[in-house]
Specification:
The chain has helices at 16-24, 44-48, 61-75, 86-90, 93-98, 108-115, 117-126, 140-152, 193-202, 251-263, 304-312; strands at 5-9, 32-38, 51-54, 79-81, 102-103, 135-137, 157-161, 171-174, 190-192, 209-213, 216-226, 232-241, 244-248, 268-277, 280-287. By secondary structure, it is of the alpha/beta class.
């Protein structure tokens, strides 16, 4: 069966409960114990873990590294999957190695390149991977110049933070005036240009945005597994087109993803996203962490989280080739249990007063909706 493996996931997104499930259901039957920390006592990753703690708030990046080193030493962590303060953590890889912990994350140099999207776009174009046209914007004048240039070319302009993860801060610019149409139905990413300009004029400090054309579907997220030797062991694309999801190993997506993983040393699990600019796939983003939807590769017969942990332990996985590409599917929410809030390790403050209604038994799970990847 092999020795027990102790894995820690720090503050991360809810979908990683599936990452944890896959570690435990590894094909070698290896015993895995999972430690989780989070700032939210109701995070489902805390309930899914074998041991869990609340993370302290307000730590500087260096103070967080000290906290993480203490966790690894006290908990005898073999493999640490850092998401929060990833850049600060990987910069001290040798310190973690000294306490017996391997970081399941790329080297500091690779993380630094892809923290800033403008730097990333320049870097990937230098190795031959196409990126969309983009403008770095900090002022009203720069915004208007970028928007007018894109609209003159027949494109819809959008913007997002130059540094950031996922779709946080993404907006599509429209010339339509604000009206009840913007208040009907669900919230929309579309925002009138005049409101954006007004916000910039009133801002106390400059923004740091990338303005670029609105890229079209399909979106393809290529999950890559790369060893610390720089050799890619797996590259499988997950396609998104509206609700419809699927898988692909087409070279149009896989070839540039493998090139980036090898050229920049994107070790272990990374996610490289593409969309269409006209009829050409272009890079949208590079995430130097496991994707929230990584577990969906199980539909292709691939357990990527466990393969990554094996590489981190110094074991060889060989090439991970999906035995088949799963059928098209969609993603829906589902319930997950939470820990009882009365557990002392889940609350740093005093327990909340009891609700007037009769509380549920501790053995009855509380539902936590898992957002789609």
């Amino acid at each position: 069966m092999g020795f027990r493996v102790r894995v820690w996931l720090n503050r991360t997104y809810a979908e990683n409960v599936f990452f944890m499930d896959q570690l435990r259901s590894n094909p070698q039957g290896r015993p895995v114990e999972i430690h989780a920390t989070h700032g939210d006592p109701d995070s489902p990753v805390l309930a899914a873990a074998d041991t869990a703690e609340l993370e302290p708030e307000g730590l500087s990046p260096r103070a967080y590294v000290e906290y993480a080193l203490d966790q690894c030493a006290r908990r005898s962590i073999d493999v640490f999957v850092p998401v929060l303060h990833q850049a600060a953590v990987v910069a001290q890889r040798a310190e973690f190695a000294a306490v017996g912990t391997t970081l399941l994350a790329p080297p500091a140099e690779a993380v630094a390149v892809f923290q800033d999207k403008a730097t990333a776009y320049q870097a990937v174009q230098a190795v031959g991977v196409p990126a969309p046209p983009w403008w770095r914007v900090r002022t009203e004048e720069e915004l208007l110049t970028a928007v007018e240039a894109l609209e003159a070319g027949g494109h819809r302009a959008c913007f997002k933070p130059a540094a950031g993860a996922g779709g946080v801060g993404f907006r599509v610019i429209t010339r339509a005036p604000f009206s009840l149409a913007h208040l009907n139905g669900f919230p929309s990413p579309h925002v009138p240009l005049n409101l954006v300009v007004d916000a910039l004029r009133e801002a106390d400090e400059p923004v740091d945005w990338l303005v670029m054309p609105r890229l079209e579907q399909p979106e393809v997220s290529v999950d890559c597994l790369t060893g610390p030797d720089g050799r890619v062991r797996m590259a499988v694309g997950r396609t998104k087109n509206g609700r419809r999801r699927g898988f692909t190993v087409h070279p149009a997506w896989i070839k540039p993803a493998r090139l980036l993983a090898e050229a920049f040393g994107l070790h272990y699990l990374t996610n490289i996203q593409f969309r269409m600019y006209g009829d050409e796939p272009v890079l949208m983003d590079v995430n130097t962490r496991p994707a929230g939807g990584l577990h969906q590769l199980a539909l292709c017969g691939v357990n990527a989280p466990w393969a990554a942990v094996r590489l981190a332990l110094g074991e060889e996985t060989g090439e991970l080739v999906p035995p088949s590409l799963g059928k098209d599917y969609t993603v829906v929410s589902g319930p997950r249990p939470l820990r009882p809030v009365s557990l002392p390790q889940q609350r740093a403050d005093a327990p909340a007063p009891p609700l007037p209604a009769v509380p549920a038994q501790a053995t009855e799970p509380t539902a936590a909706a898992i957002a789609p990847a």
